[in-house]
Amino acid sequence: MDALPLYLAGGALAGVLAGMLGVGGGLVIVPILTFIFTAHHFPSQHVLHLALGTSLSTILFTSVSSARAHHRRGAVNWQTVRRVAPGIAIGCLAGAWLAAHLQTGPLKILFVAFEFYVGTQMLLEFAPNPVRTLPGRFGMAGVGAIIGGVSSLVGIGGGTLSVPFMVFCNRNMQEAVGTSAAIGFPIALFGTLGFVLAGQGVETLPSQAVGFIYLPALAGLVLASMLTAPLGARLAHRLPVPVLKKLFAVLLYGLGLKMALTL
User: Fold this and answer.
1) Residue 235 DSSP class
2) According to DSSP H, which parts of the chain are helical?
3) pLDDT above 90 for 219
4) Cα–Cα distance for residue pair 176/169, rounded to 1 Å
5) Dihedral sign for Cα atoms in the order 188, 94, 249, 140
6) pLDDT exceeding 70 applies to what percent of the chain?
7) Which one, of 52, 59, 163, 67, lies nearest residue 118 by Cα?
8) pLDDT at residue 216 in the model
């Protein structure tokens, strides 16, 4: 099976989702990479570690492309990004270390549970307290640590946590999506660093891997996602977000079910 077309297709879809919903695309990329790496007989004990690390590394590129598109529309709250970044750094490094020391089985269970959780969250609508606002500097650092830790554990850009959190704190959906896209960069940076370090000295990894980052997959995914992320950002400002969120929820349920069948 030639993996390049699958990398390109996954990257294209992830780029659209990154721009449209402020997610890094990891919820789509991780299952795709898991299936491809398994089909190519990568060492089973490290298939998911490689998928998580490679997924995070792609977000280094999609987050920049997506954030630039949202910034041009005035939809990025850079003060929020600065306040959440220190906690993200700590959380991502800790999460990557923990993920590297968990076996594939527990990681798969965690990821499937997270897919279903996020899908359910996308389907639910709520009316936040109208006086609720974002916390201060230290509160945002704590939120960043939680988002960073979870993101490293499941290989995502954090949008599935940061977007609902900011909407919960009465930020409009466009600002929540745009700011989440920018937050994806420090998550990807420190998460990637953590997985590179965690994979050092592991002798059974493929020859083209740097730590738990598989470079051929990274190249194919990035090539497509960089082109489609601006398209997703345009869609975020034109299409009805509730409908998009419900479609995304259905996709997550499908991917989660398919991965659950491999347990």
Assistant:
1) H
2) 4-21, 26-39, 47-71, 78-100, 104-123, 137-154, 159-168, 173-198, 215-236, 241-260
3) yes
4) 10
5) negative
6) 89
7) 163
8) 93
Q: What is the pLDDT of residues 26-38, one digit of tens each?
A: 777 888 899 889 9
pLDDT at 126: 55
Angle between helices 241-260 and 26-39 (to 10 degrees): 30
Backbone dihedral region for residue 25 (phi beyond 0: left; psi -120 to 50: alpha; all else: beta): left
Q: How far is CA 188 from CA 56, 57, 78, in A?
A: 5, 6, 17
Bridge partners of 214? Answer: 209
172, with CB counted inside 10 A (0-12, 13-18, 19+), is exposed
For residue 162, the tally of other CB atoms under 10 A from its CB is 29
Q: Would you state the structure tokens that stand for residue 249, as one six-digit string?
A: 């929820």
Residue at token pair 């989440």: 180
Cα–Cα distance, 88 to 86 (Å, whole number): 5
pLDDT digits (tens, 9 = 90+) for 55-68: 889 888 878 888 88
Return the pLDDT at 22: 64
Cα–Cα distance, 104 to 88 (Å, whole number): 24
Label residue 71 exposed, middle or buried (CB < 10 Å: 0-12, 13-18, 19+): middle
Secondary structure letter of residue 205 according to DSSP: S
pLDDT tens-digit series, residues 143-183: 889 888 887 877 666 677 787 788 777 788 788 888 988 98
Specify the pLDDT at position 104: 65
* Residues 253-257: contacts with CB under 8 Å, at least 24 apart: 253/115, 253/116, 253/119, 255/27, 255/28, 255/31, 255/115, 256/112, 256/115, 256/116, 256/119
| Angstrom distance (rounded) from CA 59 to CA 65 | 10
What SS3 class is residue 209?
A: strand
